[in-house]
């Protein structure tokens, strides 16, 4: 159940209640692709840094260790020892981005595994079955993520097929949730809006999928090569045509600035690999901008990554020490950087919720963006 608590312009402050707990939105989902955050981060760490919801990947878990294995072990929550909500993406994006050899047909997609080359078929029913085996809180519909700059004729045909696939996803999810051996019989389904950077296709698709009365709606196919201006334009065009009484999820986005701008346009849910990926390379987010710990100027810097930050890295260690760990290729360096970045994102979402609650979102957004652009680090 989704309940809007406060609005400030188009920015929404809401609660989303699930069988695995209530999520306060806007929220950033911490990305644990193969049921773990890259960088030696445990689920106990996620609890400590204020993570509300974790995201795992259907395709990767299907390939390894196998969704049937996860089901035999009691589902993803039990497997990774995490009792809060989990969203699993449909595998569609990976099928289209990782598979060099693939054939798209009406029934689904034939492709080769990126790990061992074995032939795999995935369609709407298979994606739902895999996600049901994983027993995540929220399952994503199987869609085609067409390239942002694809020609209009291709995008129209692709979106029409994605709409047909969505109907099949809904029917299969209802069937799976009714089976006696299904672990999570309350699994939720989010549909995905596609249409590249064509507003008319996006809006028409949003209208069509809204009629299916799903548990939530995502905007997919952005942050895949288009400009930030195009991204914001599409979000602004689409959100009015998605049900306001359901959560809106912007997939795979993004930078702190992207999130601040998208919240301003009515988005609730976000996920992105940036904080963990950048952290593993010593690139850290602060309220005064990004820093690269590999820079020589931090060799003797005994300050924390950010003064006043309460993350596990900043409470105890200096920039100089963490830089040394990274240079020495010591795993602890990566771990501390990832923890800092995820804490920064999670804390920013708390600040966003507080600002909307107070009716001060515009002032907060300006202050946050100005600070991060100041470069006083």
UniProtKB/TrEMBL annotation:
InterPro entries: ArchSynthase1/Queuine_TRR (IPR050076), TGT (IPR004803), TGT-like_sf (IPR036511), tRNA_ribo_trans-like (IPR002616). One of its GO terms (molecular function) is tRNA-guanosine(34) queuine transglycosylase activity. Pathway: tRNA modification; tRNA-queuosine biosynthesis. It catalyses: 7-aminomethyl-7-carbaguanine + guanosine(34) in tRNA = 7-aminomethyl-7-carbaguanosine(34) in tRNA + guanine. Its EC number is 2.4.2.29. One of its GO terms (cellular component) is cytosol. Gene3D superfamilies: Queuine tRNA-ribosyltransferase-like. Catalyzes the base-exchange of a guanine (G) residue with the queuine precursor 7-aminomethyl-7-deazaguanine (PreQ1) at position 34 (anticodon wobble position) in tRNAs with GU(N) anticodons (tRNA-Asp, -Asn, -His and -Tyr). Catalysis occurs through a double-displacement mechanism. The nucleophile active site attacks the C1' of nucleotide 34 to detach the guanine base from the RNA, forming a covalent enzyme-RNA intermediate. The proton acceptor active site deprotonates the incoming PreQ1, allowing a nucleophilic attack on the C1' of the ribose to form the product. Homodimer. Within each dimer, one monomer is responsible for RNA recognition and catalysis, while the other monomer binds to the replacement base PreQ1. This is Queuine tRNA-ribosyltransferase.
């Amino acid at each position: 159940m989704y309940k809007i608590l406060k609005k400030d312009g188009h920015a929404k402050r809401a609660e989303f209640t699930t069988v695995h707990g209530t999520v306060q939105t806007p929220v950033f989902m911490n990305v644990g692709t193969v049921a773990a955050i890259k960088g030696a981060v445990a689920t106990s760490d996620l609890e400590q840094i204020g993570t509300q919801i974790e995201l795992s990947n259907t395709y990767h878990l299907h390939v390894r260790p196998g969704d049937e294995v996860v089901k035999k072990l009691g589902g993803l929550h039990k497997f990774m020892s995490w009792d809060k909500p989990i969203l699993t993406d449909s595998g569609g994006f990976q099928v289209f981005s990782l598979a060099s050899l693939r054939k798209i047909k009406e029934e689904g997609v034939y492709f080769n595994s990126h790990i061992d080359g074995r032939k795999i078929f995935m369609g709407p029913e298979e994606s739902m079955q895999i996600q049901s085996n994983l027993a995540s809180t929220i399952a994503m519909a199987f869609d085609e993520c067409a390239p942002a700059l694809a020609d209009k004729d291709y995008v129209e045909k692709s979106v029409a097929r994605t709409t047909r696939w969505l109907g099949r996803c809904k029917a299969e999810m209802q069937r799976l949730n009714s089976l006696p051996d299904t672990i999570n019989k309350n699994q939720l389904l989010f549909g995905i809006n596609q249409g590249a950077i064509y507003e008319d296709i996006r809006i028409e698709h949003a209208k069509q999928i809204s009629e299916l009365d799903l548990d939530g709606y995502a905007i997919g196919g952005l942050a895949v090569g288009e400009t930030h201006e195009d991204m914001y334009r599409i979000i602004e065009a689409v959100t009015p045509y998605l049900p306001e009484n359901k959560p809106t999820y912007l997939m795979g986005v993004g930078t702190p600035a992207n999130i601040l701008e998208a919240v301003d346009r009515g988005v609730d849910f976000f996920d992105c690999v940036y904080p963990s990926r950048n952290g593993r390379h010593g690139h850290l987010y602060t309220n005064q901008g990004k820093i690269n710990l590999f820079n020589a100027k931090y060799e003797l810097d005994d300050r924390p990554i950010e003064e006043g930050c309460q993350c596990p890295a900043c409470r105890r260690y200096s920039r100089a020490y963490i830089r040394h760990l990274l240079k020495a290729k010591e795993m602890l360096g990566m771990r501390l950087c990832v923890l800092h970045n995820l804490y920064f994102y999670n804390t920013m979402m708390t600040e966003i919720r507080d600002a909307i609650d107070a009716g001060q979102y515009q002032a907060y957004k300006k202050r946050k963006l100005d600070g991060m652009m100041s470069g006083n680090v």
